[in-house]
Every structure is written in C-alpha cells, then in structure tokens.
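[Automated response] Your request has been received and processed.

Submitted sequence:
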Amino acid sequence: MTREPGDLPSLAKAAIPAAVTEVDAMTRTALSAVHPIAAPAQARFAIAAFALALGAFLVWGAGFASADALHDTAHDARHAMGLPCH
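Generated structure:
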C-alpha cells in the first residue's frame, strides 16, 4: 500500500478491519483527524498574565467589598441561574 503525503497511519485502509461498520469507520476517521494546536509562547504568556490580573482583581474586589455587597451579588447570581435561594 502506498501512502500519500499527509496520510496518517490510523487512516490507512488496512488499519480498519473489513468487519467494521461504516459508522464506526466514520467515527474513527473523525476522531483521529482532530489535532491539538500548540499556542506560541507569547500567546501563552498573554493568557497567563490576563488570568493572573483577573484573579487578582476578583480577590482584591472581594477583599474590599462590604459583606452586604457580596451577599447581594451571590443572591442575584443564584436568581440569574434560576436556583432557589430562600
């Protein structure tokens, strides 16, 4: 069997037994065709910096907020999700 450029070993016709149904073959092909994309170091650093800034903002905001403001925020969030609170 001759492989073409870009072929993956898991997609080769010989790798799929003849007894496999067409749906199984399609599922196997679809699952093996997914490849993760690696982010460059700059993008990872930007994401990490944003996450750190957001986390610091939330911790700082909760630290200086009054108890009533925190309670009201949690109460409103429960109502927004449709959960009972009383």
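Summary generated for your ticket: The CA atoms of residues 71 and 77 lie 10 Å apart. The helical segments are 22-32, 41-64, 67-80.
If you did not submit this request, please reply to this message.
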